[in-house]
């Protein structure tokens, strides 16, 4: 749908669900508290959301535990669970416009990215994990004839999913789908900046046949609902995507409570290494999209552009020309390539980093401010720095906005050293025509994902997660369903 007028008409008519979803029903928060979510394109109020706290979290966890122990989902036949999850995928597709609209209004992502990336990926996630359900197998080990030893896999129980605001629906899918596929019950806490699509997800889950209590949604703030989930003694695992600082808190809360399992996908400061023999035109195209897609609000944003010194000037010139395709505008317009940042606070954070970059000696080549005419929203111009060293703040800290820095290097070894000199290790890429260079750099990079001659490519078989302070555990891939299960050893004495 390419008609901006129609999208705006749909936006004017939208009436989103704003309550919590607990034990199969939409309910108000126990204490009656609410909070306002704003439209980042214009700063206007969008919805008054129920604000859950520790009391609501406890109700949701209790409902999830009852459902788990009843076996309505955890002991349901694999083929039946597969059928329900395939219906979820079908309903996601049927309601694709509604989901895209809610996330567009809630966090400012362009409607074209939502319909071409987020929705297809979310649908594919539920399809993929539906297909894994009957592929999980146990083991019979070789033992003495006097015994039969079986190792079986069982669900963990209650899984809490805490998701970020930058990909509201897709991150919910990445967290929730494998947890459900493994037979667990789930409590989802969406980011307070973008909770709307999670509640529509709850609606279609019920329509698809997910039993009451198996899936619950508690809106709220991290310091209330998120912390309560992480500290809850009856949550068996917490899956978190968000900032590194909060990811560390999740590990602390797990230790302070019941030693629940924790997986975290946190920050990144991803490098693209462009060698002198790279396919130059293609490399520049991916360098631009790698930082400006989703307004740079993406953990894998390629914010460090490590360019061989022989290509530096030509790269900057070509980058500037290519970046002209990325212009801020109304996210409801399918022609818009850059929407607003999610909040005024995030906008100011990014602008502050730009100021720091200037003060530390970096030169702004393009961007560096607020687009003219869009001051009411939370916009930042796509920005490129040159004259940057790897010791500058903008080359070391995650900005989470449309800000890239070009850093020149002389040798392959220097490029790898700069790339690895980071507390993060989520994604990276190398651009080269030389096979030895490609394999050697991929081997030496301290990164959970390394792309060669591409960026942001992959499918559901690709483990998504990082090294170092980018987190622990993986999303997507078959490994993820196994991470939502535990093994039980059954030793039978045949005497």
What's the SSE blueprint?
Blueprint: H1 4-13, E1 20-22, E2 25-27, E3 34-38, E4 45-50, H2 54-70, H3 78-94, H4 96-107, H5 111-132, E5 139-140, E6 147-155, E7 158-162, H6 168-181, E8 185-189, H7 196-208, E9 215-217, H8 222-231, E10 237-241, H9 244-256, E11 261-265, E12 271-274, H10 280-292, E13 304-308, H11 312-323, H12 344-359, E14 363-366, E15 383-386, E16 403-409, H13 412-420, E17 424-425, E18 427-431, H14 435-444, E19 449-452, E20 467-468, E21 471-472, H15 477-483, E22 485-493
Parallel strand pairs: 7-8, 7-10, 8-9, 10-11, 12-13, 12-18, 13-16, 15-16, 18-19
Antiparallel strand pairs: 1-2, 3-4, 5-6, 6-22, 11-21, 14-15, 17-20
Helix pairs in contact: 2-8, 3-5, 3-7, 4-5, 4-7, 5-6, 10-11
Per DSSP E runs of 2 or more residues, the count of β-strands stands at 22
Major beta sheet, strand line-up:
14-15-16-13-12-18-19
What's the architecture of the largest domain in CATH terms? 3-Layer(aba) Sandwich
Provide the domain count: 2
How many H/I helical runs?
Answer: 15
The largest pleated sheet is described as: 7 strands, mixed
The assigned structural class equals alpha/beta
- Amino-to-carboxy terminus distance: 69 Å
Model regions low in confidence, pLDDT < 50 over at least 5 residues: none
Strand residue percentage: 15-25%
At the fold tier of CATH, the topology name of the largest domain is Aldehyde Dehydrogenase, Chain A, domain 1
* CATH top-level class of the largest domain: Alpha Beta
Overall average pLDDT: 97
């Amino acid at each position: 749908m390419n008609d901006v007028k129609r999208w705006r008409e749909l936006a004017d008519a939208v009436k989103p669900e704003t309550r919590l979803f607990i034990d199969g029903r939409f309910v108000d928060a126990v204490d009656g508290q609410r909070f306002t979510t704003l439209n980042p394109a214009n700063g206007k109020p969008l919805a008054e959301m129920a604000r859950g706290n520790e009391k609501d979290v406890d109700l949701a966890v209790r409902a999830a535990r009852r459902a788990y122990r009843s076996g309505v989902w955890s002991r349901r036949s694999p083929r039946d669970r597969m059928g329900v999850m395939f219906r979820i995928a079908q309903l996601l597709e049927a309601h694709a416009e509604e989901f895209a609209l809610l996330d567009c209004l809630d966090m400012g992502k362009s409607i074209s990215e939502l319909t071409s990336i987020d929705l297809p990926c979310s649908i594919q996630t539920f399809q993929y994990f539906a297909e894994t359900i009957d592929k999980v197998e146990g083991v019979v080990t070789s033992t003495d004839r006097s015994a039969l030893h079986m190792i079986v896999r069982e669900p963990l129980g209650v899984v809490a999913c805490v998701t970020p605001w930058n990909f509201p629906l897709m991150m919910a899918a990445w967290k929730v789908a494998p947890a459900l596929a493994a037979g667990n019950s789930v409590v989802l806490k969406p980011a307070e900046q973008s909770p709307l699509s999670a509640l529509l997800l709850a609606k279609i889950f019920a329509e698809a046949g997910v039993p009451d209590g198996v899936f619950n949604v508690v809106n709220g703030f991290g310091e209330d609902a998120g912390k309560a989930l992480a500290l809850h003694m009856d949550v068996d695992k917490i899956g978190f995507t968000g900032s590194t600082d909060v990811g560390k808190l999740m590990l602390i809360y797990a230790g302070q409570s019941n030693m629940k399992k924790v997986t975290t996908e946190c920050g990144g400061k991803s490098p693209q290494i462009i060698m002198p023999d790279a396919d130059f035109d293609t490399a520049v195209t991916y360098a631009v999209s790698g930082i400006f897609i989703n307004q740079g609000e993406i953990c894998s944003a390629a914010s460090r552009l490590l360019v061989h010194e022989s290509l530096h000037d030509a790269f900057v010139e070509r980058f500037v020309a290519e970046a002209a395709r990325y212009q801020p505008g109304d996210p409801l317009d399918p022609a818009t390539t850059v929407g607003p940042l999610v909040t005024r606070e995030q906008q100011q954070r990014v602008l502050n980093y730009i100021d720091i970059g200037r003060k530390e000696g970096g030169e702004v080549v393009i961007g560096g401010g607020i687009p003219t005419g869009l001051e009411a929203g939370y916009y930042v111009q796509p920005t490129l720095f040159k004259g940057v060293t790897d010791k500058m703040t903008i080359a070391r800290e995650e900005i989470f906005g449309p800000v890239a820095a070009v850093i020149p290097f002389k040798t392959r070894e220097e490029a790898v050293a700069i790339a690895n000199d980071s507390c993060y290790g989520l994604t990276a890429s190398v651009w080269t025509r030389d096979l030895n260079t490609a394999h050697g750099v991929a081997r030496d990079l301290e990164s959970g994902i390394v792309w060669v001659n591409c960026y942001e490519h992959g499918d559901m078989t690709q483990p998504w997660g990082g090294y170092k302070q980018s987190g622990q555990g993986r999303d997507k891939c078959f490994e993820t369903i196994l991470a939502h299960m535990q093994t039980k050893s059954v030793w039978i004495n045949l005497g």
